[in-house]
User: Which sequence fits this backbone?
């Protein structure tokens, strides 16, 4: 009897251990897929793909660079929507401002752009992220500093963080970050805040559902048309008034295909 009871006890212990392993495994999987870890994602292969594409089909200097998270990367009609402006899409989905800052020299400054349109902040403040609105605004300020330290004549357009159904609970933080960024931009030269969020509400408490695809996060064609109506007139008007190119802007320098510091060739 004692031996039988001992086997039963061992069996219960084994079941408890198995349950613990399954629970811990589930937590680990959830943690590994959490947006908290997004900032540690390795974007190097993606950036190298951009550079390889540039080697095969070198873009012109002085283009307008669109960069940021998946709302930029998924903008398949961007080139057509922005005509006659020459644009290049360097969005990489899932990225945060800190990721963009890390690779700004290679996917923004390398093109010596006349202007840069950036959309970030969505992933920075996703559910589970430890970042605050102040931290996102600080990263946005750092992006401006990085670009203007190399290209002081380049215009930077910071697109507001959009509201969405998937991240509606995070909207208060995103709205706060938008305000902080807007306040900062108002103190800067050659930086403009582009408010797409207000238009997306269309006077309602929440944006219309048809502005988002099935995931409730990414823009539909209708949403991109709305963004185009806001961004394109400003970009076009400013491009018409663009002055001559100077050595500190986007002048007669060769395009950089690698991660080499562009200042070496600009000297």
Assistant:
């Amino acid at each position: 009897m004692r031996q039988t009871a001992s086997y039963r006890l061992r069996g219960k212990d084994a079941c408890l251990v198995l349950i613990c392993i399954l629970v811990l495994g589930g937590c680990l999987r959830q943690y590994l897929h959490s947006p908290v870890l997004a900032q540690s994602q390795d974007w190097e292969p993606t950036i190298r793909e951009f550079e390889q594409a540039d080697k095969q089909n070198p873009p012109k200097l002085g283009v307008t660079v669109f960069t940021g998270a998946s709302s930029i990367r998924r903008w398949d009609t961007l080139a057509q929507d922005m005509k006659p402006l020459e644009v290049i899409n360097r969005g990489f989905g899932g990225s945060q401002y800190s990721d963009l800052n890390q690779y700004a020299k290679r996917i923004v400054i390398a093109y010596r752009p006349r202007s840069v349109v950036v959309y970030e902040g969505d992933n920075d403040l996703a559910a589970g992220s430890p970042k605050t609105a102040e931290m996102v605004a600080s990263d946005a300020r750092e992006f401006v500093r990085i670009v203007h330290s190399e290209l002081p004549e380049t215009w930077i357009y910071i697109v507001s963080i959009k509201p969405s159904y998937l991240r509606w609970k995070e909207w208060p933080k995103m709205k706060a970050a938008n305000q902080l960024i807007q306040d900062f931009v108002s103190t800067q030269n050659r930086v403009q805040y582009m408010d797409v969020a207000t238009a997306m509400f269309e006077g309602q408490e929440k944006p219309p559902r048809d502005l988002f695809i099935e995931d409730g996060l990414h823009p539909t064609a209708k949403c991109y048309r709305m963004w185009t109506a806001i961004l394109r007139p400003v970009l076009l008007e400013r491009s018409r008034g663009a002055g001559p190119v100077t050595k500190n802007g986007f002048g007669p320098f060769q395009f950089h295909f690698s991660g080499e510091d562009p200042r070496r060739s600009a000297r």
In short: The domain at 38-257 is CATH 3.40.50.1110 (Rossmann fold). Confidence is low (pLDDT under 50) at residues 17-39, 243-267. The longest helix spans residues 2-32.
